């Protein structure tokens, strides 16, 4: 799902019995415990994600890049769509954190450590979300 505001993504997650990830959870799922630069390792590979270098110019199905999954088994942690996180970007609390880059961003924005931001009411075809569930 793309083009939804933070609040719409949050409402969907709650409705489905889940939630949006914190920035720390998102980064752990993407980088693993060894601090890798991309979910699959430290070298960029355009065959493992949908970024500007892919020249697809749109979102792709989540399972399109099976070789780009993270150590935790998550698809599309680099590229495809920037993903809303629960955290505020800074102390002004005017923008929410986005992680992962998108099809419109280059390889630098797809690095696991890169943070982006958007106003929580913002809707954009390069912004989406993933839901997480707290295990009991």
The count of strands amounts to 4
Spans of at least 5 consecutive residues whose pLDDT stays below 50 are none
Lateral strand order in the biggest sheet: 3-2-1-4
Total individual domains: 1
The CATH topology annotation reads as paralog of FGE (formylglycine-generating enzyme)
Number of helices: 2
Structure description:
The chain has 136 residues and is α+β, with helices and mostly antiparallel strands. It has one domain: paralog of FGE (formylglycine-generating enzyme), CATH 3.90.1580. Helices cover 14% and strands 12% of the residues. It has helices spanning 6-15, 23-31, and strands at 82-88, 96-99, 115-118, 127-128. A four-stranded mixed sheet has the order 3-2-1-4. A hairpin with a 7-residue loop joins strand 1 (82-88) and strand 2. The longest helix is centred in the N-terminal third of the chain and has 10 residues, at 6-15. It is globular, with a radius of gyration of 14 Å.
